[in-house]
Amino acid sequence: MTRTTLGLIAVFALIAAACVTFGAYFSYVTLLNAHKGIIEARFGIAARRVADVAEQAASFGIALPAQQALTDILAREARIEPALLSMDLVDEHGTVLFSSAPGRAGGHAAADGGGRVVAQVRDDLGRSIGSVVVRYDPHILAAGAAALFDGLKTVSLATLGGAFVATVLIGLLLAAALRRAVRRAAEPAMWPAAAKSALASVAAAHQRAGASWSLRGRK
Amino acid sequence: MIGLRGGISFAIAIILCAALAVIGWAAERAARHTIVPEITAKANSVGRSAAALMERAQTLGIPFERLAGVTDYLEDLRAANAEFAQLSLFDAGGAETARAGDASGFEDPPMVRIPVTDRDGRRTGELLIVVDPTVVSAQVGGVLLDVAFIGIVSLLVALELVALVVGTRGLEALIAVEQRLRALARGRFVLHDTGKGTSARGLIQPIDLHMEELGDVHARARAEAERRGDEDALVWLEEVEERTGLGRIHAVESQAAVAVRPSLFLFMLAEELTRPFLPHFAQSIASSTEISPGLAASLPIVAFMAVVALGQVPFAGVSERLGRRSGFLIGALLAAAGYALSAVSPTYSLFIAARVATAIGYALVFVSAQGHVVDHSAGAARAAALAVFVRAIMVASLCGPPIGGVIADRLGAEAAFATSCGLALVALLVAAFTLPRGRPDERTGGVGWSQLKQAARAPGLMALLFGCAFPAKFLFAALCFLLVPLELQRQGYSSAAIGRFQMIYPLIMVLAVPFFAALADRFQVRHGFVVAGALVAGIGAMLVPLQPSIALIVVALVTLGYGQAMSIASQSALVADTASAMGGGRGAGVLGLFRLVERSGNAAGPASAGFLMAALGFAPATAFLGAVVVAGAVLFALSGRGKPAVQSGRASSAAASEGTSA
C-alpha cells in the first residue's frame, strides 16, 4: 500500500515536472522564434527598401549592373544596422554586382556564412532580375537567445522545483489523510457524520422492531 | 471523499496552472528586456521606409498636406506588422493627419518618432509608431495554454494508465481502501469484496468486520421479523436497508474490463489524435487533384466510418474465430500500419486506402475488446464491465484531440499520424501482456445478417432507430469531425484550439450521461428524454445561422452534448427493452441492428456535411443537419412509441453501451 501510494505520487510529480519543463522550453522556443522573426523582418525591410530603389531604376530602363548609385545606398543602409555584415545586390546568376562591403563585388554570394535575408528585385513584368541579400552577424541571434535563456532559466528552475516539491508534499499529505481516514474508519466512534447518522438509523430501526416484539410478547 | 488519485490530480492541475502562470510572467519579463527593443528597432526601420516614401512624394512635387492614401498605407503597414499598436502621421504643427490603430489602452508603451522632411531637409511632419508590448506575451500565452491543456490531459491519461505504472495489485489495494472510505462518507454500509488478497487487507479488515457484524445483526433482525410475520418491522428494516445498503454487496469492477482498459484506451487515443487536423490534412493532400475541398475533407472520414459500421457484424465472428487477444493484436497492427501509411501517403487515393486499413484495424480491435469484456462477464457485472470499457473510450475522446492538435501544430500532421502509429503499437504491446490467451471459438455465435433482418421487425424499433439513433450520430459525426474543424480552421484557429473545442462534447457526455440516465429512470420518461434530447441537439445546430460566430458554434457543441446525454441512455434502455421483449436469443440481433444503424449515421453524417458545406456553406449546412434531427424526433414522437415505459435498467447499463465515437 505504501509502495503503491509512493509510486502514484512519484508518477504524478514526474508529470507535473515534465509539464513545467515543456512549458518553459516551449516558451523559450516561442520567444526565440519571435526574436529571430523580428530581427529578420527588420533586415528584410532594409533589403526591401534597396530592392524598391533598384526596381524603380530598372523600370526606367537602367539595367542592374548599371545602377552604380546603389553602392552608396547599400553602404548607407549597412551603416544604420551595425549587425549587418554586408548588403549586396546580386544578379540572377548569384554574382554580387554591388556591395556595402568593399571587395565583395564580382564574387559569388552563395557560399557566404552568417544569417541571410533576401528581397527579390523584379522587373515590370514581375520576373526576378536579381536580389538584395543581407548578411547579418549570427551573434545578434545568439546574444538574444542567451538573454532570453538567462531571463527564463532562474524562474523556470525555481518553478520546476517548487511544482515537484508541492506535488510530493500534497501527495504525502493526502496519503497521510487517507491513512488517518482508514484508522478512523476502523473505529465507529470516529466515523464520519453520515456514517454515524446511518448507524443511528440502523440502531433505531432494530430497537423499534425489538420494542415492537417485546410489546407483542407482553400482550 | 475525493480519494488519493482524484486529490493528487486536482492538486497537480492547480499547481500546474500556477507554475505555468509563473513561467508566463518570466517569459513576458524576458520578452520586455530582449524582444521589445528589437521590435522598437524594427519600428524604426519601418518608419524610415515610410518616411522615405513620403519624402519621395514631396520630391516629386506633392506637398505634405496633399499626400493622398496615407491612412490606407498606414493600415497596410499595421496589418503587416502585428507588433505595432498604432501608426500616426503628424504635420509640422503637431496636428494628426492620418492614423491606423489605437494604442490608448497601453500604459507607457515603447514608441519611435521618425521625422519627415522635404527636398530641402526642412521638417514637414513626423511619423509616430507605437509598439504593442503584449504581442509576444500573447504568443507565449498561447503556448502555455497548449501546455496547460497537455498537462491536464496528461493527468487524465495517467489516471487511465495508472494500473500499468503502479501495478494492478497495488491499484486494487488503493481502490479497495477508497471504496470503503467513500461508502462510509456517504453513510453506506455495503460489503466490498475487493482488496482482500492485497497489501491493503490489514487496513480494510477492521472496516469489513464492522460491516459484516452490522449485516449479521440486521440479517438476524430481518429473520426474526419474517419468523414473526411482522410486516411493520419488515418495512422499517427494508427502509433502513435501502438507505444504508446494509447486507448488499458492492459490484466488483470486472477484471476483464480492467485488463483490457489500458490497451483499449491507448488504441482509441491513437485515433482520437487525428480528429482536429484530419479534414484539413485531407484537403491539403487532395489539393493537386480535381476533388472538391468539401469532398476531399469528408471522404476519408466517411470511408473510415463506413468500414467501421459495416465491419462490426462480420468482424465479431472473425474476432471469435481468431480469439479476442489475437483479434486485438491483429487489429492494432493493421491500424498502426494504416497510421504509418497515412503519415507518408504521397497521393490522396493512397491516403484513403490507409484510412480504410486503419478502420479495419479499429473495428477489429473494438469488437475484440468488447467481446473480451462480454465473454468474461455476465448479468449486472457485464453492465459494470461495459461501463468501464466505455469510460476508457470517452476519456480517450476527451484527451486525444487537444494532444493531436498540439502535435500537428508544432511538428506537423505527419508527426501526429506517426504518434498515432506509435500509440497503436504500444496498445498492441500492452494488450499482448495483459489480455489472456483464449482458445479460438469455432462456434462463431456472433450476430448474423438474418438476425438483423428479424430484429428489424420488432415493433417500434425502426422508428426509434431511424427517428432518433441514426440522426443523433449523423449530426454528431458531421458537426464534431468535419464541419466544426473545417470552419474553425477557416476562421484561423490552430489545430490545438480545434482540439480544445472538440473536448466540449465528450466532456459533457462524461459528466451528464449518468445524471440524465438516473433522471430518466427515476421519472420513467425515457421516451420523453429521447425526444427532448434530440430536440435540444437539433435546435442548437439550427441556431448557428442566426449569427455564425464562434459563440454559436460553442452553443451548438454544448447543446449537442447535452442533447445526446439526455437521449442516449434512454435510447439504449428502450432498445434493451425491445431486445428483452424479443427473447429467444433474438435480443442480440436488436442490439446489433442498433449499433449498425448508429454507425451508419456516423458515416452518413460527414458525407452529407461535405456535400452540404460545399453547396450551402457552414451555417446553413449545420442548420440543415439540425433540422434532420428535429424532424426525426418529431416523427418518432408521432410514431406511437410513447407508451408508458417499463422499469428501466440501471443508469450504468444504459451509459455502458454508449459514448463510442465511431
UniProtKB/TrEMBL annotation, chain A:
Keywords on record: Membrane, Transmembrane, Transmembrane helix
Tree of life domain: Bacteria
Ranges that cross the membrane: 157-178
Record's protein name: Uncharacterized protein
